[in-house]
Amino acid sequence: MATFITLASFTDQGIRNVKDSPDRFVAFKGLAEGLGLSVKAAYWTVGNYDLVLIVEGNEEAATTLLLKTGALGNVRTQTLRGYSEQEFRRLLDKV
């Protein structure tokens, strides 16, 4: 199962409605689960990004989730494919 680390920044719309952010996260989590994904963690942060999400599942479902989320207009995202130590060691075996 692939791990995706998403860094999200509030748009102008998202920050205007920041008090709704926890409820938006609950909806995000429900959508993720409906697509067969598992939300492993969510952290609201300060700095360059406002939210960090860790999601596990397949790439197609994760891409669908992020496109649907982005279309709502509250956040812009940057997503990284994460590898555990074991996964990375397997990749290195092929190098």
- Assigned CATH class: Alpha Beta
Can you tell me the CATH superfamily?
Answer: ACT domain
Summed over residues and divided by their number, the pLDDT gives a mean of 97
User: What structural class do helix, strand and pairing data support?
Assistant: alpha+beta
Architecture, according to CATH? 2-Layer Sandwich
String of helices and strands: EHHEEHEH
Main features:
95 residues; 4-stranded antiparallel beta sheet; 4 helices; alpha+beta; Alpha-Beta Plaits; 43% helix; globular
Task: Describe the SSE topology.
Elements: E1 2-10, H1 12-16, H2 21-34, E2 38-44, E3 51-57, H3 59-71, E4 75-82, H4 85-93
Characterize this entry briefly.
This protein is an alpha+beta fold and 95 residues long. The protein has helices at 12-16, 21-34, 59-71, 85-93; strands at 2-10, 38-44, 51-57, 75-82.
Describe, in plain words, how this protein is organized in 3D.
The chain is of the alpha+beta class. The protein has one domain (2-93): Alpha-Beta Plaits (2-Layer Sandwich). It is 43% helix and 33% strand. It has helices spanning 12-16, 21-34, 59-71, 85-93; strands spanning 2-10, 38-44, 51-57, 75-82. The chain has a 4-stranded antiparallel sheet with strand order 2-3-1-4. A hairpin with a 6-residue loop joins strand 2 (38-44) and strand 3. It is globular and about 50 Å long. The two termini are 21 Å apart.
